[in-house]
From TrEMBL:
<dbReference type="GO" id="GO:0032259">
    <property type="term" value="P:methylation"/>
</dbReference>
<dbReference type="InterPro" id="IPR003726">
    <property type="entry name" value="HCY_dom"/>
</dbReference>
<dbReference type="GO" id="GO:0033528">
    <property type="term" value="P:S-methylmethionine cycle"/>
</dbReference>
<feature type="binding site">
    <location>
        <position position="320"/>
    </location>
    <ligand>
        <name>Zn(2+)</name>
    </ligand>
</feature>
<keyword id="KW-0862">Zinc</keyword>
<feature type="binding site">
    <location>
        <position position="253"/>
    </location>
    <ligand>
        <name>Zn(2+)</name>
    </ligand>
</feature>
<keyword id="KW-0479">Metal-binding</keyword>
<protein>
    <submittedName>
        <fullName>Homocysteine S-methyltransferase 2-like</fullName>
    </submittedName>
</protein>
<dbReference type="InterPro" id="IPR051486">
    <property type="entry name" value="Hcy_S-methyltransferase"/>
</dbReference>
<dbReference type="InterPro" id="IPR017226">
    <property type="entry name" value="BHMT-like"/>
</dbReference>
<dbReference type="Pfam" id="PF02574">
    <property type="entry name" value="S-methyl_trans"/>
</dbReference>
<dbReference type="GO" id="GO:0009086">
    <property type="term" value="P:methionine biosynthetic process"/>
</dbReference>
<dbReference type="GO" id="GO:0008898">
    <property type="term" value="F:S-adenosylmethionine-homocysteine S-methyltransferase activity"/>
</dbReference>
<dbReference type="InterPro" id="IPR036589">
    <property type="entry name" value="HCY_dom_sf"/>
</dbReference>
<keyword id="KW-0808">Transferase</keyword>
<keyword id="KW-0489">Methyltransferase</keyword>
<feature type="binding site">
    <location>
        <position position="321"/>
    </location>
    <ligand>
        <name>Zn(2+)</name>
    </ligand>
</feature>
């Protein structure tokens, strides 16, 4: 298939950004972890998105913390923010859409505030480790899976049942994705995609609605070979490869030990930049709804992986659940030495 002008624009967008970033860009880390550390109560089906209603200032602070740790991309607090989820709380359709836009507005405001700080801060890194380096920063609007909306852990199984069809998934996501695409974000991050069906729904939705915003697909895996549903990881990546809007493809919310093999799998079927932001490797107890202590890797170990991932082809790297600004700062420092 011949490459169209819009294809070239999409691929050029990410190529130019990565070139400006020195070849590798840094994504932020876990949001919910940090919101809880700031005192937020996330025991709610909306999870981190509940702070859009209760404490948007905390979201702003976490974005700032990641920017000051060296992140080049900050991801909005919209992972579990859905119109259906907000409406179940009694909000109107207009109020629900406004909250989606608000997630992007908070991130854009944090970026503006950070740039203001860069203009007045000398040197680039302060004694307490804060990075004030004027650079291109992207805001990625997060779209979580249908399973994330269900808040029953099914984004970690991809098992939605026979009643959830391709068309049903497209209709569930359609308005939400359109609102986020028109919200002022630089790209959309389709995150923790658990199965091939949902990836196909996203790809067809972007095409049907003729959206011009770039996006990435990030899948999750439990074994380093398949996505969590058991679908072939290579087949899922192939869907991203054929979608003109997708400017990067990779993996998130997956233990670090599986990433090396998954990068190799991506390279066999895709020419797009590879995006990698694993969790800390800790285990999550879905029944207790809490993380199992001492089951993850240290920041030092996490960063030692990052160098290897970049050497074999990762272009965008960061962290997911249970990673912190300290993790991202460590990535910034190690990549600065490359």
């Amino acid at each position: 298939m011949a490459e169209t002008t819009s294809d070239k624009l999409s691929s050029a967008f990410m190529a130019e950004f990565l070139r400006n970033a020195g070849g590798t860009a840094i994504i932020d880390g876990g949001l919910a972890t940090e919101l809880e550390r700031q005192g937020a109560d996330l025991n709610d089906p909306l999870w981190s998105a509940t702070c859009l209603l209760t404490s948007p200032h905390l979201i702003h602070k976490v974005h700032m913390d990641y920017l000051e740790a060296g992140a080049d991309i900050i991801i909005t607090a919209s992972y579990q923010a859905t119109i259906q989820g907000f409406e179940s709380k009694g909000l109107s359709r207009d109020e629900s859409e406004s909250l989606l836009r608000k997630s992007v507005e908070i991130a854009c405001s944090a970026r503006d505030n950070y740039y203001d700080s860069c203009n007045t801060s000398i040197p680039d890194e302060t004694p307490d480790g804060k990075i004030f380096k004027k650079r291109q920063i992207l805001v990625a609007a997060s779209v979580g899976s249908y399973g994330a909306y269900l808040a029953d852990g099914s984004e970690y199984s991809g098992n939605y049942g026979d009643s959830i069809t391709l068309e049903a998934l497209k209709e569930f996501h359609r308005r939400r994705v359109k609102v986020l695409a028109e919200s002022g974000a630089d790209l959309i991050a389709f995150e923790t995609i658990p199965n091939k069906l949902e990836a196909k729904a996203y790809a067809e939705l972007l095409e049907e609605e003729n959206m011009s915003i770039p996006a990435w697909f990030a899948f999750n895996s439990k074994d380093g070979i398949h996505v969590v549903s058991g679908d072939s990881y290579s087949e899922c990546v192939s869907i991203a490869e054929s979608c003109r809007n997708i400017v990067a493809v990779g993996i998130n919310c997956t233990p670090p030990r599986f990433i090396h093999g998954l990068i190799s799998s991506i390279k066999k079927v895709s020419t797009k930049p590879i995006v990698i932001y694993p969790n800390s490797g800790e285990s999550y107890d879905a029944d207790l709804k809490e993380w199992v202590q001492n089951t993850g890797v240290s920041d030092d170990d996490f960063v030692s992986y990052v160098n290897k991932w970049c050497e074999i082809g990762a272009s965008l790297v960061g962290g997911c659940c249970r990673t912190t600004p300290d993790t991202i700062r460590a990535i910034y420092r190690t990549l600065s030495k490359r």
